[in-house]
């Protein structure tokens, strides 16, 4: 599994890439692999206000459905509409073409509650041991 160093990670398996005052968010490689082939994505709407740790959408896969929880607070600036017709893009390329939304970064302090790639890899390793 791949956990790029430049990203921050939540315990809910959502990654965040900071681009200036914007945060690009998506589902981690671990999450997409655990879920299996993603068959549908419920995206937020542009203009929605997200609060850190609140649900902002969901993904459906053959195995299950999973809520998506916001890693940071902010206004949704863009959504990846390509996922509506090709949700499996998250499986194929979770960190680039499979991004879910771009939000304004309302409170940079919230980033401190997210994990580094190394910490997230350790977190996933513990989760796998418990399975």
UniProtKB/TrEMBL annotation:
Note accompanying the cofactor annotation: Binds 1 lipoyl cofactor covalently.
Modified residues (N6-lipoyllysine): 63
Domain of life: Bacteria
Cofactor(s) required, per the database record: (R)-lipoate
Keyword Ion transport set for record: no
GO biological process annotation, one example: glycine decarboxylation via glycine cleavage system
Segments forming domain Lipoyl-binding: 22-104
GO cellular component: cytosol; glycine cleavage complex
SUPFAM superfamilies: Single hybrid motif
Keywords, sorted A to Z: Lipoyl
NCBIfam families (UniProt xref): gcvH, PRK01202.1
Function as written in the Swiss-Prot or TrEMBL entry: The glycine cleavage system catalyzes the degradation of glycine. The H protein shuttles the methylamine group of glycine from the P protein to the T protein.
Assembly mode: The glycine cleavage system is composed of four proteins: P, T, L and H.
Family from the record: Belongs to the GcvH family.
HAMAP family: GcvH
Name assigned to this protein: Glycine cleavage system H protein
Organism: Geobacter pickeringii
Source lineage: Bacteria, Pseudomonadati, Thermodesulfobacteriota, Desulfuromonadia, Geobacterales
Protein's gene: gcvH
């Amino acid at each position: 599994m791949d956990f790029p160093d430049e990203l921050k990670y939540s315990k809910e398996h959502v990654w965040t890439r900071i681009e200036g005052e914007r945060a690009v968010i998506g589902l981690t490689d671990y999450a997409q692999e655990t879920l299996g082939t993603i068959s549908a994505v419920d995206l937020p709407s542009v203009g929605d206000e997200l609060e850190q740790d609140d649900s902002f959408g969901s993904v459906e896969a053959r195995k299950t459905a999973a809520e998506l929880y916001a890693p940071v607070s902010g206004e949704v600036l863009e959504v990846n509409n390509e996922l509506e017709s090709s949700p499996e893009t998250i499986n194929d390329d979770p960190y680039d073409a499979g991004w879910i939304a771009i939000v304004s970064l309302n409170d940079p302090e919230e980033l401190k509650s997210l994990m580094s790639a190394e910490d997230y890899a350790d977190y996933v390793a513990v989760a796998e041991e418990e399975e």
